[in-house]
Write a structure and sequence with these properties.
75 residues; mainly beta; three-stranded antiparallel sheet; two-stranded antiparallel sheet; 0% helix
Length: 75
């Protein structure tokens, strides 16, 4: 037998949400072109608790999340 064992606390971890402040130019593809971003400033997005990196800019704290780690865009 094989499988993945998840602790009971895994069910308690709800996705986080936040407002997109800025986006980068898009992921660089193998062919040298950039993919278009699926999010834009002003969008509200869902992401897992451990997806973002915390950064501080001019005394303000921001979360940086890779586009692949965004679970969804809320309307």
């Amino acid at each position: 037998k094989s499988g993945i064992v998840l602790p009971d606390t895994a069910r308690e971890e709800k996705p986080e949400q936040g407002e997109v402040i800025a986006v980068g130019p898009g992921k660089l593809l193998d062919n040298g072109q950039r993919s278009s971003m699926s999010v834009k400033p002003g969008d509200t997005v869902l992401f897992t608790k451990y997806a973002p990196d915390e950064v501080e800019v001019d005394g303000d704290e921001y979360l940086v999340v890779e586009e692949e780690k965004i679970l969804g865009i809320l309307e």
